[in-house]
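// run 5 | inverse folding | seed 20
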């Protein structure tokens, strides 16, 4: 990273804790490759100081920040405006700082869509989609799929009330048909994309989040879990020669989207990906 001086543009991450994050490595590698005099720093912001931290952004001349757990929802009252996706999802992970406003974005959701496009050459437009898990990530992914024109969504969660809340939210912004499945149901054979947005897969002993016995061989499986290179779901799908992708690409492309919002520049995606692979798996691609 270039030496920090009086002209260095500062970017960062608000979260609590932030010690685990790979975002500084990813963004600082991109700044260095593009020759930008900029630095990305993690800021441990406790929940009771979030308002103070947001108010400090302009005073400190910070150019943009990401927001992570536990602040993605609670940061919203401190912002001036929200993107359509952030407003619908009810969560923000990126703050754009303009001369007149602090604008909240959700690049997690669009990062997922972009990961599918870049890795699999896949678009959800006009396609039936299945999503297991209707919490934060699953909620965001489902809303974005609807906004991007998925023909139908089948959602499943152990908390059926949460699944129905997601269905009702999507009905306010999209004509996409949404069905709520029981956890015992098989993934519908017609779906083109099956997504695991539950924590199942983070440990070797976890059961499959859903059965893919009826899934077409031409479908795509995406598992947002990324702490291991290959979850049981991914292995099961690949053993059937079904195209399957892990969640590190979603992390990558949410960062790419944030970088573009802040700088207006196209970041070096290959470099960012290599840094993430090294940080998470200890290998480079």
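// decoded
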């Amino acid at each position: 990273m270039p030496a920090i001086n009086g002209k260095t543009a500062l970017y960062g991450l608000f979260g609590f804790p932030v010690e685990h994050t790979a975002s500084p490595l990813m963004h600082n590698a991109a700044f260095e490759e593009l020759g930008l005099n900029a630095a990305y720093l993690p800021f441990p912001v406790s929940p009771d100081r979030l308002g103070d931290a947001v108010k400090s952004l302009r005073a400190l001349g910070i150019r943009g920040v990401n927001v992570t757990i536990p602040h993605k929802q609670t940061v919203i009252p401190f912002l001036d405006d929200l993107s359509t996706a952030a407003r619908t999802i009810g969560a923000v992970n990126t703050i754009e700082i303009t001369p007149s406003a602090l604008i909240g974005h959700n690049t997690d959701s669009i990062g997922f869509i972009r990961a599918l496009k870049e890795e699999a050459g896949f678009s959800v437009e006009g396609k039936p989609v299945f999503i297991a898990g209707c919490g934060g990530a699953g909620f965001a992914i489902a809303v974005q799929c609807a906004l991007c024109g998925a023909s139908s969504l089948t959602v499943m969660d152990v908390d059926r009330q949460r699944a129905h809340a997601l269905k009702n939210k999507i009905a306010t912004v999209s004509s996409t048909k949404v069905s709520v499945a029981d956890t015992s149901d098989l993934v519908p054979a017609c779906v083109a994309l099956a997504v695991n947005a539950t924590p199942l897969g983070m440990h070797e002993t976890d059961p499959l989040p859903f059965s893919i016995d009826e899934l077409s061989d031409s479908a795509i499986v995406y598992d947002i879990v990324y702490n291991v290179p290959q979850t049981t779901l991914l292995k099961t799908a690949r053993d059937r020669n079904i195209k399957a992708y892990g969640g590190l690409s979603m992390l990558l492309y949410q960062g790419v989207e944030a970088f573009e919002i802040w700088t207006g520049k196209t970041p070096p995606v290959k470099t960012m990906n290599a840094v993430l692979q090294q940080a998470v798996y200890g290998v480079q691609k």
